[in-house]
Amino acid sequence: MKKVLLLFAVCIGMCVAVNAQLGDLTKKATQAAAGAKFDINNIAKGVMGKLVPGLNLVGDQAPKVNEEVINFLKKKANILSLKAGNPAEYTKQQTDLFNNLKTKLGSILKPDQLKKFLALRPAASDKSNPLTHLFN
Fold first, then answer.
1. Distance between CA atoms of residues 78 and 76, nearest Å
2. Concatenated DSSP letters for 90-102?
3. Quick one: pLDDT at residue 106?
4. How far is the C-alpha of 47 from the C-alpha of 122, rounded, in Å?
5. Angle in degrees, CA 116, 124, 97, rounded to 5
6. Of 41, 52, 58, 43, whose CA–CA distance to 120 is shortest?
7. Which pLDDT does position 10 carry in this prediction?
8. Does the predicted TM-score (pTM) go above 0.90?
9. Across 66-77, average pLDDT
C-alpha cells in the first residue's frame, strides 16, 4: 500500500512539473503569436502602399511620412495589450496617438493631402485594409 501511495505521489508531482513547464510554453507561444500579428515593418509597407498613390506623395514626403507611420506603429504596439484588458484606456491612448500623427503629418503634407488622408479612413475595422492600423 505504501508503494502505491508513493507511486501516486510521484505521478502527481510529475504532472504538476510538466504542467508548469507547459504553462510557460503556452504563454510564450501566445505572446509570440500576438507579436507576429502586429509586424510594424509589414504594416508600414502596406500603409505606405495605400498612402503614396492615394495622397500623390512627391519628393521627400514619402520617407518623412513613412518615418512618422513607423513611429506611430511602434507607440501603438506598446498599448495593444490594453485593447482587451482596458478598452476605454486603449481608445483614449489610440486617439491621442492618432491626433499626434495627424499633427506631424500636417507639417509634411499639403492641406489637400491631409484632407485626402483623413478621407482614406476605412469605414469599419476592415482587417484587409492596412490603414485600419492607423485609425483604429
1. 5
2. HHHHHHHHHHHHH
3. 94
4. 12
5. 65
6. 52
7. 62
8. no
9. 95
Residue with cell 491612448: 93
**Average of pLDDT values for 97-125?**
92
Q: Can you tell me the distance from the alpha carbon of 7 to that of 48, in angstroms, rounded to the nearest whole number?
A: 62
Residue whose C-alpha cell is 500636417 = 106
Query: At 12, which amino acid appears?
Result: I
The alpha carbon of residue 52 and the mean position of all alpha carbons in its chain are separated, in whole angstroms, by: 22
Handedness of CA 55, 99, 133, 118 (dihedral sign): negative
Distances (CA, A) of 115 to 7, 67, 76, 105, 121: 73, 20, 23, 11, 11
**Which whole-number Å values give the CA distances from 92 to 36, 37, 97, 113, in the listed order?**
24, 22, 9, 26
Residue type at position 98: F
